[in-house]
Amino acid sequence: MTILVVGEIQKGSVREASYELITFAKKLGGDVKGLIIGSGCGAEAEAFAKKGAGSVYVADEPALANYNVDGWTRAIKAAVAASGATTVLISNTPSGWDCAARVAAGLDAGFVSDAFDFADGAFVRRVFNGKLDAKVVSSAAKTVVTVQPGACKPFEGSADGKTEKLAVDVSGLKAKFVETKVAAAKGHDLTKAEIIVSGGRGVGAPEKFTEVIQPLADALGGQMGASRPVVDAGWLPHEYQVGSSGQIVTPKLYLACGISGAIQHLVGMKGANYIIAINKDPDAPIFEVAQLGVVGDLFEIVPKLTAAVKAAKG
To answer: Mind listing the domains of the chain with CATH numbers?
Structure first.
């Protein structure tokens, strides 16, 4: 079995999530090959090859200098043809989830999205907002899989690697890069916070964030965060969201209140130095990453904790 790992360049270097794909590929077994797509990306391909990707195909074309869904699809299909890969691993980043399904359709391949593990011959993904794990087995000759960033540790080994120029037909691309627009910062930068108190759907209502979650964050001298369901419901603006589609945070202390712990949220906060989780469900996935777990009603626990912090501070 040959596994093709699609690397992604971010700000001039191969992003960490791409090295996580190599760790994931090792779980599958087989021969690992890599792919780097871009323009003038030889140095990044060399680095990828020497850090676990082995033989790396380089789709180096001026037309691929910026992400282009049509160009990426062609490059990945060309790499599959050249390598004979039966499994393609792509990070579940905006670029990855944009092109992966198209690649799968073009290869007439099976498709698995948001996988975070591989066990017993099956890809594992969370469903029903993280309440259940589903094992998925593809019966197709080829399979395309997107893997959640943060699901594995980046591959830390080193190996002899080589790069090989990959010919990709970029004529007549149907998509064209125009520009990148970065949203203006709105003053709630959780990435710099040392203490974050986050609330999830278990908080129950938007006003409860002001009444229960914010006071604890203020007492601790930290900031308030939230999970994606809270933001999707319109209870708090997007800049409060912690997770793969929000902000990735690494505070000294992270308190998760009423958050079940979907993999998308865990990706955004499991790098915290110390995690405390408060949830009524003893089987909530958030307890898997917490150093301290409290099974109970957050509306009883959080106000008492806030009072205790204020008393300790005098």
So the answer is: 2-165 (3.40.50.620), 190-313 (3.40.50.1220)
